[in-house]
Amino acid sequence: MTADAVIMRERGMKEGLKVGVSGVRGVVGDSFTPQLAASFAQAFGTFVGPGPIVIGRDTRVTGDMIEQAVQAGLQSVGCRPVLAGIVPTPTVLVLTQELGARGGIAITASHNPSQWNALKFVDRRGLFLSETQAEELLDVYHQQLFPSVAEMDIPEATRVPSPVESHWRRIESCVDVNAIRKRRFRVAVDCCNGVGAVHTPDFLRELLGCEVFPVLDRPTGRFEREPEPTPEHLGLLCEAVRTNHCDIGFAQDPDGDRLAIVNEQGEPIGEDLTLALAVEQVLSSHGKGPVAVNLSTSKSVEYVARRHGCEVTRTKIGEINVSETMLKIGAVVGGEGNGGVIVPAMHPCRDSYIGMALILELLAATGRSVGELRSDIPKYCMAKDKMRIRGEHAPEILRGLRRIYEGEKLNLFDGVHVDFGEQWVHARRSNTEPVIRITAEASTAEAAAALTLKVREQIESMER
Amino acid sequence: MTLRVASFGIRGKVGDSLTIRTAMDFSSAFATFSGGGRILLGRDTRYSSPMYHAAVLSSLLSAGCEVLDFGVCPTPILQFCVQRYDAAGAVSITGGHTAAGWNAISLIGADGSFLEPLGGEAVLDGFHAGEFLRRPWDQVGAVRVADDFLGPYLDAIENEVEVEAIRRADFTVLADPVGGAGCAYLEPFARRMGIKLVPINAQPSGYLAREPEPRPRSAQQMASIIGRIKGDIGFVFSSDMGRMSLVTDAGEPASEEYTFAIIASHVLNRRPGPVVTNCCTTRTIDDVAALRKVPLIKTKVGQAYVLSALMDEQGVIGGEGSGSIVLPSFSRGFDGFLMMALVLDAMAANQCPLSDLLRALPRYHIVKKKILCESSAGYRAIDSMVENARSRRNVRVDLTDGLRVDREDGWVHARLSRTEKAVRVISEAVNRKDAERHADDAIRAIRQAV
To answer: Are both B282 and B392 inside the same structural domain?
Structure first.
């Protein structure tokens, strides 16, 4: 259960309806109903105007039901539903741009457990709505004044015949597919019973010439492991790598935007290393350029970028914030430390498929193993702490921290982020709980813990 | 006023009163009423029907209903199938007889009849309260496509008629389903009955090539060609195959009022028993029933009311002057295919063309008019007409649905429309002049009251 769900339950509210920048999500049958989905689809159709809208979804049991509601909602305001079916979220974004659609809707609660579902809204550029756009959409939703479309003008829904085709073509044009195919890698993949179960084995086999050993590859939407691809959930994949003597193991989340890696020994290397290795490959083979990652991404990315003489820009938390910064500064690669690789040359969104292709390209280009490549990058450790405070104190506390660390390299997009070169500490107000979250990263666990402890003491002295 | 909400269905204007939200809440209320059980779902070909289909489907799944999707399917076939599929009910999305730009969502109960006025109030209560059954994620419903129903359906139709006699008669039959739900089913029906089918407006389409209400005015196309292609009979249907009017071999478009009369005469010849109709159907039915000395029961206007009384009275046939019949031995719905089969059966059994069957019936002239007015004014007008009628001698006043005044030589009926701001007036008499005169009198009375 997510933190906000706990809060909602404590307050006796319906479980977890969350309307925000990243869309609308909730627990199906409780707060998230077909009526709500249809109404938001109407608001979105009204917001972007009449025209084609791409709809894609993950494998969740409730996906078809929500898709029907969204489809009807869009038609009722004069938009043509263009149904992509069960596809990765990045495919929805790619298709929206590729087909020149007015917008797109991805029906997926991403890494949330099975009982959740959500709508994520995509603008005509194929990017998730920005914070401002999302606020405007909410205004339209609350007005509930949707255009009325006469029967003659209701557009018919259409289907995209081979929905992943354009996504795969773009990946092909970004990476050296032939170099990968020549190596005939043995690859294990954990699809988490999500969209990967429909597309990933084919992608690895047909496009990248791999021998594939899939696990959790039935697209049931009943996730047989925790949907976040963090090391503690990847036992099955590790075993598959070992028994089949694979070169590498890949783990996806249910909608295929995040990627975790297991090395040839069958050990997870940690989600943050996915991005570090992808950055390594882009900067060494595709050309140098700026890199952008969010504030909570590991230092390992900075280490790799520095090795290539490239700058790393930190952004606010939230995929769209990373994407927009990347476009603004012309970043060649970037993303999130949670396994979200973004390559703008493919499309400015998190995509586990471009991630897999880059990592395999790296293995092919260097002839080295995952373990060897990983050992090139120094080990970083993170520490996390949270302090319960009175909500109204948060701004004052953050201002106080800002004064204390004034002489250091500060980033104030989202709370206070202090960069000490080889280590950093970040304090920010939680969106969902009355707490300040403190995160730090250093070369050892002790050093990281010392950083968070220091901030905790500073806050405590302010509270006194 | 373009929305009609009743327990057996909700009808309204697309892009206006019949919003997606209304359709979804109504379906959710029905799904709740049905306990999240198995539901059959079908639609017609109107432009908005796929949209409502998606909206309704989503709501049904959310309550945990197992949905058997019949795709494009006439309402009577869904009604026929409910019991056979052991379902809790069915939902039919169809514009029916209404004009372009309208649509409706009809609710069918576990026995296959339109949700009964007396049993379905719970649906309306749920709809108004906005409280619906919702299943958690792992108990939401699933959809299965139904595709094995047509054979048994046609078998059952065969059982109601003498197929061999129909085959021997080698009829040439024109049929016009107005591009609606019936299109794809006409060919299989014709093969079973051994008739030569001449389809008109039989490409499925949301475009309405004619008025969808079966009546002489919408049968003009067919009436003008039937002679040239030597057709024995022509059938004109509504979008949902629930209503039908006839065109004779001589090119006469018969009033839709005679559909019920022709079929009732034929059915009662074989199976005498009580007949049920609404309170503004032609007197021909009264004569048909009187001739066979069977009771005739009159109800409020609407399939649901007729069927309810039919079951109460254990009648053998029910129907309405709008061009529909139901045989409880066959199903619980007004069924265009069954009607078509029975008319062919009547022609084969009597070995005579439709024009002769019509000639054998006592015929009246019927006039249907409508006067636009605010509903409050309409109520007032009908009230004062009731008072007026009660003060007259030699007339019978009936208030089953609106006002009906019977005289020796005919009757007039006035009631408030449910879907527009208007009063509808029907007048029937032995000759056209009298029918027109009494209708005009009624309209003048309404104008005065307004």
So the answer is: no
